[in-house]
Design goal:
This protein is 15% helix and 38% strand. It has 4 helices and 20 strands.
């Protein structure tokens, strides 16, 4: 390996995979090609999102920069907010931290369990131009969109919402009855979504439980997507399908979501895991594991 080696953490939130860089002392700048190579699950470290922790220009505990596996930058990631919140709280000995993102300020809180973190994802947005959509819809609880034959569509009439990024939720009786790996890319890039969209299949189990499968924008099928869980919970409550406090079951595990009536903020609680510490050569992209999991390497930068 060369001389330009930098440390990283491999983390996940319910199987939502992250590579985390601490760039508060020295910038970490990677090209889209490098990001895609590092994110490759076969030949690279493998991740759903690459998270760069930077100094906050406005005085928050940190700024969180997010790139998807395809190299594109995105504004929000709920599970990453919980993972980075855990690291920042542990290094500072605090029970709450504020994280600046391109989607605004997000807050993470301790639950008393060091592995379970709550993230305040802020207020959802429902206006067609805030999601955004390419044309005006007065009611975004169910928009005119379908895939498949006109007289017998495969999926149709999704709920749409923005929880830091755009989401479309299709309500189905069986989330496994559809080939989301085939139809996900078509829906993600549908012309109605000028910034593309995350696509979820959701089945309401009860007033307090929903099962969900997600095609994530710029990533593909994912074991967990925090903002998708928030989007589904909010869309379900808004349409009177469930209560405002639910458990969302994803392939990677459950997330507890509460859409508070007091301030309309969406609170998300779930597990986090540090898989291992590592070093990567930025020139060659060769990497090695250097430490065990569940031991943060982020250091306070004075």
């Amino acid at each position: 390996m060369g001389e330009r080696r930098i440390p990283f953490l491999k983390m996940n939130g319910l199987g939502n995979e992250f590579v985390v860089w601490d760039a508060r002392a020295e910038p970490v700048r990677l090209s889209p090609d490098q990001i895609r190579a590092i994110g490759d699950p076969e030949d690279g470290i493998g991740f759903d999102q690459m998270i760069t922790v930077e100094r906050s220009p406005i005085g928050a505990d940190a700024f969180m920069r997010i790139h998807n596996r395809d190299g594109g930058q995105v504004d929000a990631c709920g599970n990453a907010t919980r993972c980075i919140g855990r690291l920042l709280m542990q290094e500072a000995g605090k029970d709450a931290v504020t994280i600046q993102t391109n989607a605004g300020l997000l807050h993470a809180y301790s639950t008393g369990d060091p592995f379970r973190i709550t993230a305040d994802m802020g207020e959802p947005r429902f206006a067609w131009n805030e999601i955004p959509l390419a044309e005006e819809f007065h009611d975004t609880r169910a928009i005119e969109l379908q895939i498949g034959p006109i007289d017998k569509p495969i999926l149709h009439t999704p709920s749409v919402v923005n929880v830091g990024n755009p989401h479309a939720v299709f309500w189905v009786r069986d989330i496994e009855a559809y080939d989301l790996s085939r139809i996900g890319p078509l829906l993600e890039s549908h012309p109605i979504f000028p910034e593309k969209a995350n696509i979820s299949l959701a089945h309401v189990l009860s007033d307090t439980e929903i099962e969900v499968k997600v095609w994530e924008r710029g990533v593909g099928l994912t074991r967990a997507c925090g903002t998708a869980a928030c989007a589904v919970a909010v869309a379900a409550a808004r349409d009177k399908r469930t209560d405002r406090k639910v458990t969302v079951h994803l392939p990677g595990g459950p997330l507890q979501i509460e859409w508070r009536t007091s301030d309309n903020h969406v609170m998300m609680t779930g597990g986090t895991e540090i898989e291992y510490e590592g070093l990567i050569d930025i020139e060659t992209l060769e990497f090695q594991r250097t430490g065990p999991g569940d031991k943060p390497i982020l250091e306070v930068v004075k």
